[in-house]
């Protein structure tokens, strides 16, 4: 199952610990080296799709300073899909490096 970049980054953000929405937004910014900036609408739309696909689930809800906060985590299926997509992307990057005659870890 190929994932859109935003979905891949959201799953990767959730790969270590459950996070609430703002935590996911911050983690995605860090993982993408500030290239991908998710707005709340985009994030929650993606989380709803990922939950509908059985890749993430809500694991905790609380109210902090009058604001409702939901924590999301990967499901077992979500971890499997993330692992498979990471393997696929690694193979693709290795092929690209060979085609471009690049040493691993070097830019153009």
UniProtKB/TrEMBL annotation:
Ranges where the Transcription regulator PadR N-terminal domain occurs: 10-84
Organism superkingdom: Bacteria
Coiled coil location: none
Pfam families, A to Z: PadR
Full protein name: Transcriptional regulator PadR-like family protein
Classification lineage: Bacteria, Bacillati, Actinomycetota, Actinomycetes, Streptosporangiales
């Amino acid at each position: 199952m190929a994932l859109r970049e935003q979905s891949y980054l959201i799953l990767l953000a959730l790969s270590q610990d459950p996070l609430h929405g703002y935590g996911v937004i911050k983690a995605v910014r860090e993982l993408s080296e500030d290239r991908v900036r998710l707005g709340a609408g985009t994030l929650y739309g993606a989380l709803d799709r990922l939950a509908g696909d059985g890749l993430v689930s809500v694991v905790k809800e609380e109210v902090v300073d009058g604001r409702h906060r939901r924590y999301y985590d990967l499901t077992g299926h979500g971890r499997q899909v993330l692992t498979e997509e990471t393997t696929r992307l690694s193979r693709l990057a290795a092929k690209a490096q060979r085609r471009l005659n690049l040493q691993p870890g070097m830019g153009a």
